[in-house]
Please model this.
Amino acid sequence: MLSKEKMDRINFLAKKAKTASLSAEEKQEQKKLREEYLHHFRKGMRQHIESLKVVDEKGHDVTPEKLKKIQKDKGIHGR
Model:
């Protein structure tokens, strides 16, 4: 997760870009901050998806085998 300061900076640069032009340094900083944000977002999303357990309406585990293998390798859900 990004720090509050970095998130505030991302938001500041986005707002500034809408009302005025960013300098070359600010554009580079914005690009770097966005890449860092996306890295953390994707990492968190992957962890969330990898921890899912899919159950049908009858209560049977219908988690895809590919996901079960990932969970087994990582020791998630006791697989």
